[in-house]
Amino acid sequence: MGNFEQMTTETTIDYRTLLNMDNILAWLANTSDDQWCVDYCGEEREGVPGGAAFCARGHLLVYAAASGMERGFDDVFHEVWATEFMYYRVNDGKHPKYQQATPRERVMAYFTDLRDGRELTTYKLMEADMNRA
After folding, report:
1. Minimal CA–CA distance to 43: which of 53, 58, 56?
2. pLDDT reading at 5 higher than 70
3. Residue of 102, 104, 100, 131 whose CA lies nearest to 120
4. What does the pLDDT look like over 42-99, one tens digit per residue?
5. Where in the chain are the domains?
6. How far apart are CA 73 and CA 110, in angstroms?
7. What is the rounded distance in angstroms from the CA atom of residue 104 to the CA atom of residue 121?
8. By three-state DSSP, how is residue 96 classified?
9. CA 17, CA 109: separation in Å to the nearest integer?
10. pLDDT tier at 7, thresholds 50, 70, 90
11. Helix crossing, 21-29 with 56-66: angle to 10°?
């Protein structure tokens, strides 16, 4: 049993709703470009809501905390959708396919592609790798 299946049976948190990419994209859509940063997880920044800017991981952790799931969200997100290695390159503008003007635009495009099946999720990538012979 993977982390996701185990966690959905052991808690009252609705992980299926929390990990629904439409919900995550709606959350990220309510951030502004000046609330995003590259090359590190977060920084204090005057003049932006909350006084800080975050990378994709930071925004995901804020989303999880606001949803009551600070603990374990990273592991489950990595299993269901993408690892930090996969989305950091997008956030920081180092993925050739995602060259939008801001980290927010790049990450939202990548997460949309994950949701719509144009990019492979962590599990699908592992499955494809194991099926190579």
Report:
1. 53
2. no
3. 131
4. 766 676 667 777 888 888 888 888 887 767 788 888 888 999 889 999 999 999 999 9
5. 3-131
6. 19
7. 19
8. coil
9. 20
10. very low
11. 110
Residue 103 has pLDDT above 50, yes or no: yes
Measure the CA–CA gap between 20 and 36, rounded to whole angstroms.
22
Paired with 49 in beta bridges are none
How far is the C-alpha of 35 from the C-alpha of 53, rounded, in Å? 4
Query: How far is the C-alpha of 10 from the C-alpha of 12, rounded, in Å?
Result: 7
Owner of token pair 């990378």: 55
Contact 92, 103 (CB under 8 A): yes
- Per-residue pLDDT of 19-33, as tens digits, reads 889 999 999 999 989
